[in-house]
């Protein structure tokens, strides 16, 4: 039987990051991945034609300055991050558009002032407020620490004016926050659409808890990886190998071996057993971890019931269309603002505040937006990566994609029905995009690849019912020190030596790396090992005190000027 200090289940970015930290700590580590390649949602494939690279899952990032990206030498081992100067474009059907700029409040305010001077000032004020909170660590460093009890967190935050405002903001819904600050219906629709992760991904009527963090990228800018998202997985793999770690692909776990209440190893579906002398870390969802891998016979019945009652997201599924193009989209709204044609993140079809909510309700009802019987028109997040990174397509050609929120289970026919209607639905979505960019004709589209919500769940089973990396709805009762359960919020489990990480834990969805970073620290704590990396002191952050290790660094990264 092979033997390692630590066995990590799941080769997504959380599992890889945890493995990297522990390998550099001097532990022998192996990562087991069910699929034939690592990375999870860090997925780049040539699904249309050779030479056209398409990012099937994660794409938009904001983590190149994150703790793990620097600790794990991302800038030495790669990848290279690209941050386009025009962060967002929102074309409107009347030919106008809202355009926002990376780290340029004046240009963003100028764009918004064409709709409302009051909203232009409100945007600057809001972003300056967020940046001040970011510098203090509230919008960044608290993610890179296991959550402290909510009562204690609130008590500490109450001691400062900024802390009190932060508490107020995180207890507001997106619509409450935006309507409090802005007045013009198009501006509200645009900014609310960029809160769609908080509005659509969460169960209405209570999408609260972390929304204050979402709009900071409208100032800081979004970024992506040169060559494709999978480059991040490649870089983490190189780091892991440098420090002696191993990866075993096509190694689906059948069970976690438990003896005398302790996790001592794992067994794969083909019967291979791998011993874990110090820890087993599961980076897959809590349902698989406990109900399949551990087994109810090793768990308290009340705990099993709680795991079964973890609420999955009902609205987080995406339907995507990937295009290989002769030329990039050219927008009618570029006559209003030429920068529309070079915007990185494109918000298509979101024009009124009601557009966001109607899509959410159609999705929950099992009706794709724009499909017969829906109350909403399609509205998607789109991008053309090759405008900024030509390496993702053959010379002179382009790739593009659109993400449409859509149900996993269709009202008529369930999830399997997608295999019958996905091409027809893709036609509806492309036609919707063409309303804003008329050159997206059949002649311009060389090839396309349609990736339904059902396809998502078949490819990555951790995304239960196409739960886009959320792995449990991000509602107040499943956030922070309650994520995914209070008993699991510190990344420890009822089984000694077994730890859990991933999107089902604090800090939820996205390529944050926080779960992998945090669980590595917890494992070292339990082993009595001093970590080679410096960890933030979240209590100092809440008190507004300076954390010497990170405060000046945060300022230089996030706020060179405002």
Q: Can you summarize this structure?
A:
With about 550 residues, this protein is an alpha/beta fold. The chain has helices at about 15-25, 65-70, 75, 105-115, 115-135, 150-155, 160-170, 175-180, 185-195, 195-200, 215-220, 230-240, 285-295, 300-310, 355-365, 420-435, 455-460, 515-525, 540, 550-560, and strands spanning about 1-10, 30, 45, 55, 80, 85-90, 95-100, 225, 245-250, 255-260, 260-270, 275-280, 320-325, 345-350, 380-385, 400-405, 445-450, 500.
Could you outline the blueprint of secondary structure elements for this entry?
Elements: E1 2-9, H1 13-24, E2 29-32, E3 44-45, E4 54-55, H2 67-71, H3 74-77, E5 81-82, E6 86-91, E7 97-101, H4 105-113, H5 117-136, H6 150-157, H7 161-170, H8 174-181, H9 185-193, H10 196-199, H11 217-220, E8 224-225, H12 230-242, E9 246-248, E10 253-259, E11 262-268, E12 273-282, H13 286-294, H14 301-308, E13 318-325, E14 345-348, H15 353-364, E15 380-383, E16 398-405, H16 418-436, E17 445-451, H17 453-459, E18 498-500, H18 514-527, H19 538-542, H20 551-558
Parallel strand pairs: 1-2, 1-12, 2-9, 6-14, 12-18
Antiparallel strand pairs: 3-4, 5-8, 6-7, 10-11, 11-12, 13-16, 13-17, 14-15, 15-16
Please supply descriptive tags for the structure shown above:
562 residues, seven-stranded mixed beta sheet, single chain, globular, 18 strands, FAD/NAD(P)-binding domain, alpha/beta, disordered C terminus, Polyamine Oxidase, Chain A, domain 2
């Amino acid at each position: 039987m092979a033997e390692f200090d630590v066995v990590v289940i799941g080769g997504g970015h959380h599992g890889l990051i945890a493995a990297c930290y522990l390998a550099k700590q001097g532990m022998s580590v192996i990562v087991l991945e069910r699929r034939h390649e690592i990375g999870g949602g860090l997925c780049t494939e040539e699904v249309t034609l050779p030479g056209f690279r398409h990012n099937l899952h994660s794409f938009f990032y904001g983590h190149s300055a994150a703790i793990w990206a620097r600790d794990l030498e991302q800038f030495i081992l790669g990848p290279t991050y690209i941050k386009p100067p025009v962060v967002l474009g929102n074309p409107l059907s009347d030919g106008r558009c809202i355009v926002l700029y990376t780290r340029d409040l004046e240009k963003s305010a100028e764009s918004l002032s064409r709709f409302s001077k009051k909203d232009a000032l409100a945007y600057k004020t809001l972003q300056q407020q967020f940046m001040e909170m970011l510098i203090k660590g509230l919008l960044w460093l608290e993610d890179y620490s296991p959550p402290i009890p909510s009562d204690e967190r609130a008590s500490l935050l109450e001691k400062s004016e900024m802390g009190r405002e932060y508490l107020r903001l995180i207890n507001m819904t997106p619509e409450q926050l935006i309507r409090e600050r802005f007045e013009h219906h198009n501006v509200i629709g645009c900014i609310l659409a960029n809160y769609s992760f908080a509005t659509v991904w969460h169960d209405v009527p209570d999408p609260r808890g972390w929304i204050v963090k979402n709009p900071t990228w409208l100032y800081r800018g979004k970024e992506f990886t040169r060559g494709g998202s999978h480059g991040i997985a490649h870089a983490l793999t190189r780091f892991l190998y440098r420090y002696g770690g191993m990866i075993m692909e096509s190694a689906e776990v059948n069970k976690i071996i438990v003896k005398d209440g302790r996790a001592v190893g794992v067994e794969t579906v083909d019967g291979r057993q791998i011993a874990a002398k110090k820890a087993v870390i599961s980076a897959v969802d809590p349902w698989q971890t406990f109900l399949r891998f551990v087994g109810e016979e090793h768990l308290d019945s009340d705990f099993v019931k709680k795991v079964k009652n973890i609420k999955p997201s009902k609205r987080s599924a995406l339907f995507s269309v990937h295009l290989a193009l002769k030329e990039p989209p050219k927008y009618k709204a570029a006559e209003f603002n030429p920068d529309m044609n070079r915007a990185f993140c494109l918000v298509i079809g979101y024009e009124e505040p009601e557009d966001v909510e109607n899509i959410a309700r159609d999705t929950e009802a099992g009706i794709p937006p724009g499909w017969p019987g829906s109350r909403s028109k399609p509205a998607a997040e789109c991008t053309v990566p090759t405008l900024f990174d030509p390496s993702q397509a053959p010379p002179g050609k382009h790739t593009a994609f659109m993400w449409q929120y859509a149900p996993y289970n269709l009202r008529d026919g369930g999830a399997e029905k997608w295999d019958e209607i996905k091409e027809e639905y893709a036609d509806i979505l492309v036609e919707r995009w063409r309303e804003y960019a008329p050159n997206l004709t059949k002649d311009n589209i060389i090839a396309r690849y349609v990736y339904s919500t059902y396809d998502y769940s078949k490819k990555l089973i951790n995304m239960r019912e196409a739960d886009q990396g959320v792995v449990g709805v991000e509602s107040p009762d499943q956030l922070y020190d309650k994520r995914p359960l209070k008993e699991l919020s510190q990344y420890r489990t009822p089984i000694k030596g077994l730890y859990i990480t991933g999107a089902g834990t604090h800090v939820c969805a996205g390529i944050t790396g926080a779960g992998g970073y945090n669980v590595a620290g917890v494992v070292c704590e339990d082993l009595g090992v001093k970590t080679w990396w410096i960890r933030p002191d979240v209590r100092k952050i809440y008190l507004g005190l300076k954390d010497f290790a990170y405060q000046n660094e945060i300022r230089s990264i996030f706020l060179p000027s405002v």
